[in-house]
Amino acid sequence: MKDKTYNNADSFAISFDEEWQKVDCNDTAQKIDKVIEILSEHPFVISNFDNAKNIAEFRIYSLKKFK
């Protein structure tokens, strides 16, 4: 999906979910940080870093998307 990234939360969430599956880390908070680091060039992370982190945490902790 890297060829089709947009500066919005939906595009970030899709990219985040894809990368989350690839990262091997047992500590959830560290894994969130690693995935965001991988996506550091995503337009939404560049322009809305705090919101990107909040969305990532929401997807993992509130939606329990990957548990």
TrEMBL record:
Q: What is this protein called?
A: Uncharacterized protein
